[in-house]
């Protein structure tokens, strides 16, 4: 599904450079659930962004479904993401001017789905928000917003779901509900899951754990 080879990322810092990732290599097979864990600042979110083609590495490569992201321009990477990836973020990333239904419809419409409305309605019903279709994000609780984000992420039935601290802004009880829902939907869809978290209990729900420390892969 995805292969990372000798991935490095450095950024300018003061008079020199800051190394965020050092020679990261691993592969994730279709259908796997993999957790990436490590302390704050260990490079987890940077690694996830590189795997998604949201950023480009300083050295090394990422191959998604056999396609090397390196030679692709930003538009081509965006098109590949749209066809293959779903995202769940800690900060939900819902569009505040759109209702719950419109937020879920958006990726379907961008993909040219003619049945965007009924498909979005079905996904929101699946996450328990069938009665909240016309509510805007500011009128939804954090847990409800993350449910909308899950519905949006799974709307196009992505082959790969990337989740970045999906319970980081939620209380423990709500976070546990969201995780149960995410794993249930992931199993139903047969999606490959890569999950960034600092929560070892959450990581234990995955079949494999990759551990980062100071930008280096120290356990796989």
Can you offer a commentary on this structure?
The chain is of the alpha/beta class and 220 residues long. The protein contains seven helices and ten strands. The protein has helices at 44-51, 74-84, 100-110, 116-126, 142-154, 172-189, 200-203; strands at 2-13, 16-28, 33-37, 59-64, 67-68, 85-89, 160-164, 192-197, 208-213, 216-219. A six-stranded mixed beta sheet has the order 6-7-8-3-9-10. Strand 7, helix 6 and strand 8 (192-197) form a beta-alpha-beta unit. Helix 3 packs across helix 4 (116-126) and helix 4 (116-126) crosses helix 5 (142-154).
List keywords for this structure.
alpha/beta; six-stranded mixed sheet; 7 helices; 10 strands; 35% helix
Strands of the largest sheet, in order across it?
Answer: 6-7-8-3-9-10
Structural class of the secondary structure composition? Answer: alpha/beta
Biggest sheet character: 6 strands, mixed
Helix share, percent: 25-40%
Would you spell out the secondary-structure blueprint of this structure?
Layout: E1 2-13, E2 16-28, E3 33-37, H1 44-51, E4 59-64, E5 67-68, H2 74-84, E6 85-89, H3 100-110, H4 116-126, H5 142-154, E7 160-164, H6 172-189, E8 192-197, H7 200-203, E9 208-213, E10 216-219
What's this, in brief?
The protein is of the alpha/beta class. Helices cover 35% and strands 29% of the residues. The strands form 2 sheets. The chain has a 6-stranded mixed beta sheet. It has a 4-stranded antiparallel beta sheet with strand order 2-1-4-5.
